[in-house]
């Protein structure tokens, strides 16, 4: 794939509401990037299964309340409406990873789930 095509591909992926982009790193490793929307009171754009390895979640709060995103022991900052943050974790093959919004009451209202690394 040429550099120009790769740039177009990455740009289109960034514009999608829930896009997955595989980005090569300088070390030769790859990282999967997922764009997630936090809305009142659920997350959109999260597949049930993810590739094992390094994964970055780009979280955008499209709701009216403040939200965050926690997975694999890491959590984003508290996101006011319209704000975004990224979170990178390393997922182990075959393991389950619960995720949730840590704002009191939000996970009870549905802002939670479990991902499986394949």
Structure, explained:
The protein is mainly beta and 118 residues long. The chain has a single domain, classed as Cupredoxins -  blue copper proteins (Immunoglobulin-like, Sandwich). The protein has 1 helix and 10 strands; from the N terminus they run H-E-E-E-E-E-E-E-E-E-E. The protein has one helix spanning 3-15, and strands spanning 20-24, 30-39, 42-44, 49-50, 53-61, 70-71, 74-75, 84-91, 96-100, 112-117. Strands 1, 2, 3, 5 and 8 form a 5-stranded mixed beta sheet that branches. Strand 2 (30-39) and strand 3 (42-44) form a beta hairpin. The chain is globular, with a radius of gyration of 15 Å. It starts with a helix and ends with a strand. Mean pLDDT is 84; it is low at 6-27.
Brief write-up:
By secondary structure, the chain is mainly beta. The chain has a single domain (3-117), classed as Sandwich (Immunoglobulin-like). Helices cover 11% and strands 44% of the residues.
List the helices and strands and how they pair.
Layout: H1 3-15, E1 20-24, E2 30-39, E3 42-44, E4 49-50, E5 53-61, E6 70-71, E7 74-75, E8 84-91, E9 96-100, E10 112-117
Parallel strand pairs: 2-5, 4-10
Antiparallel strand pairs: 1-2, 2-3, 5-8, 6-7, 6-9, 9-10
Keywords:
118 residues, mainly beta, Immunoglobulin-like, five-stranded mixed β-sheet, 1 helix, 10 strands, 11% helix, 44% strand
